[in-house]
Design brief:
Layout (H helix, E strand, L loop, with lengths): L6 E7 L6 E8 L8 E2 L4 E4 L5 E3 L21 E13 L12 E3 L5 E3 L10 E2 L11 E3 L4 H4 L1 E5 L15 E4 L11 E3 L1 H10 L7 E6 H7 L12
Parallel strand pairs: 1-14, 5-6, 6-7, 12-13
Antiparallel strand pairs: 1-2, 2-3, 2-4, 4-13, 6-11, 6-14, 8-9, 8-10, 11-12
Length: 226
């Protein structure tokens, strides 16, 4: 399991409804090695209402009440690949080994479940607009001047299961998000500089009880929540 993945971001919170959590970085040279912790863990914040199971790389048979939905203010829990890094022109230099999308005046992320572009970055001048709501990325540059797309609800895209889930700069410790994972700007820069597309980085986000429950099945590194 996860034989091709050589980098791992592990986000852990105390409980399902917790806002504060910790981000660990792990790396290995090949799949036969144990995960090695890289540097000290950093403090992060998740959704204002904690976490709910998301649509990621592992399909889960869970009660519908525990699943992430659009607008629920919950961060998706589960296992996800990492999509494009995004940000302003200044921060592009932080991104050495990942695809980078520069935020322009026109860049939007569509959060209208009825749209054919739901959960996608778009330039409304390049496509036929069919959405009634979206995030205009340049309106949130204090948070989005550096971040990366979390591949939640992308394969397949399920209407109403949540959209535009990022890792981005936080408003401050203890300040919950609309469903993203946020952290200090310097910590995020360190993460982005480290990410390497060739190593197929994974993001796993779970409350500590689920880390313990799935540790063996998902081959999670042994860790102690701090």
């Amino acid at each position: 399991m996860w034989n091709e993945n050589l980098q791992l971001l592990l986000v852990v919170t105390p409980e399902w409804n917790s806002v504060d959590g910790v981000l660990y970085r792990y790396e290995r040279d090949n799949s036969s090695q144990d995960w090695e912790l890289i540097d000290n863990p950093v403090v992060i914040a998740v959704g204002k209402k904690g976490m709910a199971w998301g649509n990621g790389l592992v399909k889960l048979n869970t009660d519908s009440e525990t699943l992430k939905t659009e607008g629920d203010l919950k961060t998706p829990a589960g296992i996800f690949s990492i999509g494009t890094v995004f940000g302003d022109r200044t921060n592009q230099s932080c991104c050495k080994k990942m695809p980078y999308l520069e935020i322009t005046e026109n860049l939007e992320c569509v959060d209208d479940p009825k749209s054919a572009f739901y959960n996608q970055f778009v330039d409304p001048h390049s496509v036929t607009k069919d959405w009634s709501s979206s995030e205009k990325m340049s309106d949130y540059l204090s948070l989005y001047k550096l971040g990366f797309f979390i591949n939640h609800n992308v394969d397949p895209v399920m209407p109403t299961h949540g959209s535009c889930i990022f890792a981005h700069i936080w408003s401050g410790p203890g300040e919950g998000t609309a469903g993203c994972t946020s952290m200090d700007e310097n910590d995020l820069k360190t993460v982005v500089q480290w990410l390497d597309a060739d190593k197929k980085p994974l993001l796993i986000q779970l409350p500590i009880e689920e880390v313990i429950r799935h540790q063996k099945q998902w081959q999670l590194p042994e860790m102690i929540y701090q």
